[in-house]
Amino acid sequence: MAHTVPARRKEKGRGHLLDLDAPRVVVKDPEGDARDLARVQRWVMSTLAVTTILHLVVGLVVAAVMLDDSPVSSQVGLTVVAGAFGAIAVAVGRAIHGKRILSAWLLLGLVPTLVGLWLTLG
């Protein structure tokens, strides 16, 4: 019966070393590789920034809902501030990607205000 394990893998624990029979693959388009890396870095950065700001927004909405003995104006104020931070989150995401900041997408940032008002006043 023929053995199917390649010769370089017969020695236990030596598979991570340089193999002269299998040279390293050279990148043919380093500029394209750099563009791909930059695109991934932009997506990671925007995702982290937007989710961090949205955590603040959710915290503000939860705080507005949990205020019991305060006037309704305090709850409305917190939800309006949450909506402002939601719009800031959208603007930051668009700015990181190099898009125009002022656009209709900023209205998406006002969703926390609508949800917060529905929860506090409803």
* Helix-strand topology string: HHH
Report the count of strand segments: 0
Portion of residues within helices = 55-70%
| Strand fraction | under 5%
Total of helices? 3
The first-to-last residue Cα distance is 76 Å
Low-pLDDT runs of 5+ residues are none
Q: In angstroms, what is the radius of gyration?
A: 26 Å
Shape, principal axes of CA atoms: elongated
Average pLDDT level: 85
Tell me the major beta sheet.
none
- SSE-based structural type: mainly alpha
List the helices and strands and how they pair.
Layout: H1 30-66, H2 72-96, H3 111-121
In short:
The termini are far apart. Helix 1 (30-66) packs antiparallel against helix 2, helix 1 (30-66) packs parallel to helix 3 and helix 2 (72-96) runs antiparallel to helix 3. The protein has three helices and no strands.
